[in-house]
Amino acid sequence: MNDVWSAPITANILTGFLGSGKTSLLRRLLKQPVLSDTAVMINEFGEIGLDHLLIEAVDDDVVLLDSGCVCCTIRGDLKEALMRLHARRQRGEVPPFGRVVIETTGLADPAPIVATFFSDPMLKYHFRVGNVVTVVDAECGSANLDLYEESRRQVAVADRLVVSKIDIAAKRKTAELRKRLARINPTARIGASSESDDASAALLTHDTHDDATRLNEVSGWIKASLSAKAHEHDDDDHADAHHHGIRSLLLSTDKPLDWAAFGLWLSMLLNRHGSSVLRAKGLINVVGREEPVVVQGVQHLIHKPVHLERWPEGVPRTRLVLIVRDLDEALIRRSFNAFMRLGTRAPLDQEALSSA
Amino acid sequence: MCGLCGIFGVAEHWTDGSGYSPAEAQHRVAVGNEVLSIFGLRLAEWQGRFTLTGPTGGSAVVDNFGVLWPSAERLAGRLCDPLDPEVVAVTEKRAGRQ
Question: In terms of CATH, what superfamily is A3-207?
Answer without folding.
Answer: P-loop containing nucleotide triphosphate hydrolases (3.40.50.300)
